[in-house]
User: Fold this.
Amino acid sequence: MNLWAYVAKRLLLMLPTLVGVVSITFAVIQFVPGGPVEQALLELKGRGAAGEASGGGAAEYRGRQGIDPERVAEIKALYGFDKPAPERFWQMLKGFASFDLGQSFYHHKDVWQLVKSKLPVSITLGLWTFFLTYFVSLPLGIAKAIREGSRFDVASSMLVLVGYSIPGFVLGVFLLVMFGGGSFVQWFPLRGLTSDNWDMLSVLGKVTDYLWHITLPVTASVAGSFAVMTMLTKNTFLEEIRKQYVLTARAKGLSENAVLYKHVFRNALIPLVTGFPAAFIGAFFAGSLLIETLFSLDGLGLLSYESVVRRDYPVVMGTLYLFTLIGLVVKLLGDLCYVWADPRVQFESLNR
Assistant:
């Protein structure tokens, strides 16, 4: 099977996967109490959007008592719930096919526009987390493998494992208390990616201001990532160093640097390189909610959480569709990277 046939087959398999994920989520949503109609009715009665709306069918019935049925019908039509579920599902699928993700119930904006407005925060946390993790962990893991059992190896292992054991949210609180104007000094700002006077700053001033704002949230995000990548790099290099071809290369009189960087390095990087796409995308969408909340950063993690709480179904379904599609594409890219890094792997073996 050649490259293009394999890619075409995987792309075709994405369609039923996407439809399946969206269908299951849509079906579950139909049975979740406290939807947008119930919340709107409770607001009309002056009781807010929380509380009774979470009580299931009985709460839904009580929420509609004393309200004109015509008003109830208008609210249903406003949110599109005047149509049966199969029709709403089919319209949603047709919109997704053209990347029309609908309108947010709560923000009254196009879901695409909402996602794009939150991307700067997610891109900032994602890119810095990804690059710092790889650029620090790879050299550190290689150095630990070469110096296995040394004081440097033991000390660095203890350091990265301590960082791994501290949750990012807890570390973020500690950093804010220590350096964000808590009980000690205020060296860094508490919220946002830029200052209020961003537009008036020079180019150098904007760069400095941006780095000043992201120091604490990025530190809290990457601290726990170092341990996994560092130990994976170390163990991968150790496994390669102990193989027969390394002994043969040394027996031929090659220098240690030649053995390490011309033979071991390429083979050891295969599992690390193939994980690049997943790690790159995962840095954008995984584990950012608590960091965004703590440092008052309005990103995709916070948007997704608030959409679930507020029952903003177009945002929930739209972001789920996007994240699932991105995940499937990343999985395909990971397989292609594996073949690129190790030409011995055939596409037929990836289908098994």
About this structure: Confidence is low (pLDDT under 50) at residues 47-63. The CA atoms of residues 110 and 193 lie 24 Å apart. The longest helix spans residues 111-146. The two ends are 13 Å apart (CA to CA).
